Amino acid sequence: xxxxxxxxxxxxxxxxxxxxxxxxxxxxxxxxxxxxxxxxxxxxxxxxxxxxxxxxxxxxxxxxxxxxxxxxxxxxxxxxxxxxxxxxxxxxxxxxxxxxxxxxxxxxxxxxxxxxxxxxxxxxxxxxxxxxxxxxxxxxxxxxxxxxxxxxxxxxxxxxxxxxxxxxxxxxxxxxxxxxxxxxxxxxxxxxxxxxxxxxxxxxxxxxxxxxxxxxxxxxxxxxxxxxxxxxxxxxxxxxxxxxxxxxxxxxxxxxxxxxxxxxxxxxxxxxxxxxxxxxxxxxxxxxxxxxxxxxxxxxxxxxxxxxxxxxxxxxxxxx
Length: 320
Known about the structure:
By secondary structure, this protein is mostly beta strands. It has one domain. The chain contains 3 helices and 18 strands. It has helices at residues 39-42, 266-273, 283-292, and strands at 2-13, 19-23, 29-34, 55-64, 75-93, 101-105, 121-122, 145-150, 156-169, 173-176, 178-181, 186-207, 211-231, 234-237, 242-247, 251-252, 303-306, 318-319. Strands 5, 6, 7, 11, 12, 13, 14, 15, 16, 17 and 18 form an 11-stranded mixed sheet that branches. A hairpin with a 5-residue loop joins strand 2 and strand 3 (29-34). The termini are far apart. The mean pLDDT is 92.
């Protein structure tokens, strides 16, 4: 089998997706999500990635092969994704200024390990407890779809097929609505969340279950800056949400002639072609662990207990 590297393509679909926030169905959390297919995420319902797809990425490439060659066993065509959490911030405040405020930042070390902070790491699936992790380093284990090539008359072109892979994602963040202020001993309630994440999604081929080659890649970003107020004890998000969902241009690896995509450093190149497959060191797990372990890292830039409201807090934050 020979791969026509210059034929590699990536298509990205984000139609109907924009940054948004809602209160979870159980009334315990605020959920930062994208508008397309968000209902299962707001309901905290675990479904397949395609059912919650806010971004669909498909890749295709032509291969030349023998007439009797089983190309489904010659190589694997999948996606490998990296993510870098640049900001993960939340602020809480009490009913009155004397109840204080709490600020969390769980993208900063040491809550987020210094080794990985503000850098790209493998972005694997959001594993449920006990779920198999052998899908790594890929985003999923979907089978490649094979389309025999046809000419403009509809006739088969012998020995040429198009390999098509697909992945879906829906970046989201769930944070609790209330946080106990240890300085004032009073409950504080959600005021603001800021989340900024960068992604690199690479269409790759793995041959002989060892060598990984990048065929094409695309960079994208999600950003939320959400604010909330409370009315009669219920959290109400301010709408519309300030945010961004940006997708860059596809880069074909063959364009550089050496298999190293334009703009990739050697370190970035290695993160995809020689990925770290430790499920505890994927972007989702690192972020979730950092949020859970803030109390173990009580430095002020990770976790601050304030005795008064921040000076820029909206005066109507709490309405009885």
